[in-house]
Write a structure and sequence with these properties.
The chain is mainly alpha-helical. The protein has 13 helices and no strands. Helix 1 runs parallel beside helix 12, helix 4 packs antiparallel against helix 5 and helix 7 packs antiparallel against helix 8.
């Protein structure tokens, strides 16, 4: 275990970049006539679109955060039981939000008691009420914050009761949703790190084992369906945790060449494995193929090397301040577009045609993503920030 935990700029910037571009790739499909390479590949398409890289990089970034978060909690005096409870509650929160949002994909716009847009506004409001980062204070205000959390739970229960899907279908787990997938990956990665700790050799073994599990399950040699979510996604999260352990054990700001060379070497290995795996599986995010895993890991390791040199070694973290809130108010950033789309629909307001097609649509989505990040930053200053 390292003697002193210091904030690693690489992780903050990595997370901010992935959140910013997640906002972008979620919004840009609303535009027409945009390049195909920006979008997600289809089910049977052998392609790595730009959008196909963002979610895995976000899981990788989440994995990088876990070792530092757990060790910092220990240094604050949290017991193993308290840390374990935090991991479970955080997982549940992400799964609950993921299931609600995925059910909105099949909401009955015409037959439900609560109109879709109002339902969405109430849903996101309930998330903020329940999981806002309230100040830790004593006295009457503490009871107010508790009441707000109870109100959030009550509102979620009401929304669950009045949910109506297509053709009257009830609330169901169609799939876990993006946040649900993140929740399960967080849980598995946190458990793995809690077992192996910040020991480089055991962490390396766990990382190799996770990749092997992805290969074996996709080869139908073993069945790990008892573990929620494809092992490829878990391998991405564990890859991030493995990277952070290497930062702890190998990285040195005064002599960064060794760590940077290691990252680039791992990227080269992942790239070679991608070409090998491509003989057996297509590159597909939807199918979570090992080929996709190796390609995304190659990108992630390369990005870590670049960001470590720029931010932790050269101190250029300020270059990324324009999107800084995306790295610290990540969940808030993710929720704001849902509110905006619902409000925009209620107002009946549409972007000008130039902002809905081609390059104009791409620029609009980039600007939209930047505005969302800035709004999240302003909300954080007002103590309105989701934290689980």
């Amino acid at each position: 275990m390292i003697k002193k935990m210091t904030r690693v700029a690489t992780i903050d910037v990595f997370r901010a970049l992935t959140m910013f571009f997640m906002l972008f790739v979620n919004d840009v499909p609303s535009a027409k006539n945009i390049p195909h390479w920006i979008q997600h590949a289809e089910w049977n398409e052998d392609m790595l679109g730009f959008a196909d890289t963002i979610f895995p990089l976000f899981i990788f970034a989440m994995g990088m955060s876990i070792p530092f978060a757990i060790l910092n909690r220990e240094r604050r005096g949290d017991s193993s039981l308290k840390i374990g409870l935090h991991i479970i509650l955080r997982t549940i929160a992400l799964i609950v939000m993921g299931l609600f949002l995925v059910n909105m994909e099949s909401y009955d716009w015409g037959g439900a008691i609560i109109p879709y847009r109002w339902y969405m506004i109430m849903l996101i409001s309930a998330f903020f009420l329940l999981w806002n980062d309230y100040p830790r204070i004593e006295g009457k205000k503490r009871h107010i914050f508790t009441a707000l959390k109870v109100a959030g739970v009550a509102l979620l229960c009401v929304l669950f009761h009045y949910y109506r899907g297509d053709d009257g279908a009830p609330f169901a787990r169609h799939w876990w949703g993006i946040l649900g997938l993140i929740g399960w990956c967080y849980f598995v990665t946190a458990v793995v790190f809690s077992l192996v700790r910040d020991r480089l050799v055991p962490m390396t073994i766990a990382w190799v084992a996770a990749i092997a599990a992805s290969l074996l399950t996709h080869s139908h040699m073993i069945d790990l369906s008892v573990i929620p979510v494809d092992m490829t996604l878990h391998a991405l999260g564990i890859s991030g945790a493995f990277t952070s352990v290497m930062i702890m054990k190998v990285a040195d700001k005064e002599r960064p060449a060794k760590f940077i060379a290691l990252m680039l070497g791992l990227a080269a290995v992942m790239l070679a494995l991608m070409f090998w795996a491509h003989d057996h599986w297509i590159i597909s995010k939807i199918r979570s193929t090992p080929t996709w895993l190796f390609a995304c890991n190659a990108i992630a390791f390369t990005l870590v090397a670049i960001l470590y040199y720029l931010t932790d070694v050269k101190g250029k973290k300020a270059w990324f301040d324009i999107i800084k809130p995306a790295g610290v108010a990540t969940l808030t950033c993710y929720m704001i577009p849902y509110l905006w789309y619902a409000i925009q629909g209620l107002l009946g307001w549409h972007y000008p045609e130039i902002c809905r097609t081609g390059m104009g649509g791409i620029i609009k989505s980039l600007v939209f993503s930047l505005i969302v990040v800035w709004i999240a930053g302003g909300m954080s200053k007002a103590r309105i920030r989701m934290k689980i």
